[in-house]
Amino acid sequence: MLADDFFLIAWDTTGSGKPRLNGPALALGLAGALIAELVLEHRVLVRGVSLQVTDPRPVREHLADRILADIGNAPQHTDVRTWLAYLARRAVADVTARMARAGLLDRETTRMRRRRPSRYFATDFGRAVWPSTRLRLSLARGRPLSHDDMVLAALLDACGMTDTVVEDPDHRQAARRRLAGMLTALPEPVGDLTRHVRAAVGDAVLTYRS
Amino acid sequence: MRTAHTSTGPDPIVSALAADRLGAPSVVYFVLSAAAPLTVVAGVVTTAYAVTGITGLPVAFLAVGAVLALFAVGYVAMARHMANAGAFYTYVSRGLGRPAGIAAAWVALIAYNALQVGLYGAFGAAATPLVERWAGVTPPWWAVSLVAWALVALLGLMRVDLNGRLLAVLLTAEVAVILLFDAADLVASGPAGLSAAPLSPGGLLAPGVGALVVIATLGFVGFESAVVFSEESRDPRRTVPVATYTSIAVIAGLYALSAWAMTVATGPANIVETARRDGAETIFVIAAAQLGPVVVDIARVLFVTSLFAAMVSFHNTTSRYFFALGRERVLPAAFGRIRPRTGAPQAGSLAQSAVGLLVIVLYAVLGLDPLVHLFFYGGAFGGFGVLLLVFTTSIAVIAFFSREPSGESVGRRLVAPVPAAVALGVMVTLAVGNFSALLGVEEGHPLTWLLPAVYVAAAVVGLAWAFVLRAGQPAVYSRVGLGAKAATVQEEIR
């Protein structure tokens, strides 16, 4: 699932168990990925600033279906930014719970550090590093990307993660160029969605408060 | 599974989002903690008495507060109709066009950098005596400032905005100390008794009033930031205006009272002499007689923490300015990138720190005075820039509403904004005319035209840059004033 892959890149599940991405951007990126899953399944359509359910049939995945029901039950809310903000509130908890159910993730429960964020570790190293490896090979070396991975790359870029994915500074210039070309080629719905994620992440920087 | 909600029930989306939103008191706290009251009372007010030698400052705070409150009527009304209710330049872009907006953005960048860097001077001057007393060594002011600079630079990159709760505690303690000092000053009234002379409107007719206007404006810097929280407030139509007016009222009342109380304690005739002699120590020396050394030492520490909080706050404001302009591509795109792990606007933070380092080193090498030449001149220069921005914005508000009334009442569109703009215009004129009084130098000193000329140059270059953009990069030009939301129109233009 797209949001799972986003999480595996944005969270260091094979080392420290801590996030690689700051809280607001991580939450908004995951929220964007959750909406993108429904867009890619042709359940939800994003156009400009608005979002609506086009096909209410369940996709047979617990979390995606819950979000689809939420959006379907509140047709008065069509603003993409509203849904990003709403889903971002629980996005980390939702996605990690889904991954834990699928056996992808272990949560380290800490009694000493109750108020600190939990640490998450991948159960399968190969599965955990595969999404970032895939994107790195494509962005740095020009291998073709699947449609889903293009959306993933666009969402990561919207959250400012491109330099983290492409670790080698020598490849970043080329990666940015490829990414820019790809972003213009993205179909409207996901293109609009990632632009809203980028704007929301930027706004979070401007209104940051502790 | 969730069930469908009837239209009469509470909207689950709205109530879920409202739980995280801010009420007016929280916004007021954010605004005031950035304004750092003790920094203004112990640093700006006393240095202003010493440098300008004019005693009308208390009434100037009240007068400028009244003008800004009038200005705020149209300002908060226009904020409701802005996609990006951020900094002044976004209002100027919307009201007076994008070239004026870019010019305003560059003026703002210079002004906020000046305000931030000036604080390093005050920090050095205020913290050195404490280091001397507790550690027994006397470091030069710039060494102390450099330590603060390094901390601010680091915190800026780590995006450790000082913890909100800590700031609230510090703010409360600062206000308590200020009120305690005011009470002590008033009880121990000096030779002239409770003289109300510094509060009389006649003080505004004295020569050099333009200097007071700039200093008072400097005290209010930060009142404009409540609108930044529009999208995050519980009820933007109410929360933001209430927070803005409350902040202005609290600032005007607190600073006028404190500036007046100081003159009462020494007698209005002696305040200038006292401030010239004691510098950053003035209010502590005045209060020490009544309050005893423990309270005064607590206040000294709070002054230093207040300065530090203000430095961090202005550092972040400035780096976000760089960031917003980077996102719009008015500055290079690198300024619009974020440090992933911390979410800090990395390039903007580094740029601001570079400016700070350069200025501290320059002042240390030239042997200039940290309090007068760095803190006060930086503050006066930055405060003048903010006054220019407020004035330009006041015109932008009128222009915007004359084109798009947007359903706002005539009171908000014209009745309040027009007199506000006229008053602000008078304030700018007075400030330009009295720049020598502001800096405490003789008429015709090169600084009196050089400093205002910096803003003129920035505005001219900004205008020129706008026309270059319009001709060469129309897509970038169309995004000016959108801030982070510039991202949403990127592809539609291409």
UniProtKB/TrEMBL annotation, chain A:
It is found in: Golgi apparatus membrane. Its main location: Golgi. The keyword Membrane applies. It is a peripheral membrane protein. Gene3D superfamilies: yeast vps74-n-term truncation variant domain like. This is GPP34 family phosphoprotein. Keywords: Golgi apparatus, Lipid-binding, Membrane.
TrEMBL record, chain B:
It comes from the Bacteria. The chain crosses the membrane at residues 27-51, 57-79, 100-121, 141-158, 165-184, 204-230, 242-263, 283-312, 347-368, 374-402, 414-437, 449-469. It is a multi-pass membrane protein. Coiled coil: none annotated. Signal peptide: none annotated. The keyword Disulfide bond does not apply. It is found in: Cell membrane. Keywords: Cell membrane, Membrane, Transmembrane, Transmembrane helix. InterPro entries: AA/rel_permease1, APC_superfamily. Its main location: membrane. PANTHER family: AMINO ACID PERMEASE (PTHR42770:SF16), AMINO ACID TRANSPORTER-RELATED (PTHR42770). This is APC family permease.
